[in-house]
Amino acid sequence: MSSYIVIPARLLSTRLPEKLLLSETGKPLIQHTYEAAQQAGRPVGVCVAADDEKIATAVREFGGEVVLTDPAAPSGTDRVAEVARGLNEIEIIVNLQGDEPEISGTVIDQVIELLENQPTAVMATLATPIRSRQQLEDPACVKVVFDTEGRALYFSRSVIPHPRDWKDRLLESDPACFFQHIGLYAYRREFLLQLAQMPPAPLEQVESLEQLRVLAAGETILVGICHETTVGIDTLEDYQAFVSRRQKG
Questions:
Q1: What are 136-176's pLDDT values in tens digits?
Q2: Angle between the 29-37 and 53-61 helix axes, to the nearest 10 degrees?
Q3: At residue 5, what are phi and psi to the nearest 5 degrees?
Q4: Which CATH number fits domain 3-248: 3.40.50.150, 3.90.550.10, 1.10.3720.10, 3.40.50.300?
Q5: Pairing state between β 66-68 and 123-129
Q6: Which of 14, 24, 27, 74 is least buried, going by the fewest C-beta atoms within 10 A?
Q7: CA pair distance 29, 32, nearest whole angstrom
Q8: Contacts of 102 by beta carbon, 8 Å cutoff, 6+ apart
Q9: What is the pTM of this model?
């Protein structure tokens, strides 16, 4: 099936303004993510959905594809959907966050293959085992539980499943007991366009997690297990650690 990656890029991020333009490595952060996306084998292309001319200029300067989207769009999903409306020949749209410069092409291909192999699902994402109690209890770490067929049951900022009696060995269980949701999505294009028109669901508003809108609508989200850790850039400390890894590499 034909697939395409769209990277929503917002200039004024909350915790680290203009982070996608930070360039201590010699390249803006958005370029690192773009080049990482190009390592995937299944998509036919990549573009950035920018909300500001400053980001669009940076993408053009390194030779990337970019589309200027409505600066008033309420979310990255809306930005991705705006680009998807013009991609009539594409069946699967991948939403890759602009602050994921170390995502692997293999992971992107994996989330696409989930939709290719399961025609009843409208959306797919990934999760990775949680092995740290600090991470498990961090509200910024979104958790997911899913059934034996890999269909998401719920996403939460709380600990799910919630042990009635805590035992440290739960963090070491195999298969894993707890999973962190990785913010990478693949959508069937037609569903993505519908999703952008749906009103927020009550559960989504409580948890501030947009994927709950999909579950509340009774749709299927597939969850694949990924053992590669991806580190998003949310703070200045995250970015400095990324720069350090690049220099060592």
A1: 999 988 999 999 999 999 999 999 999 999 999 999 999 99
A2: 60
A3: -100, 130
A4: 3.90.550.10
A5: unpaired
A6: 14
A7: 5
A8: 32, 36, 230, 231, 242, 245
A9: 0.93
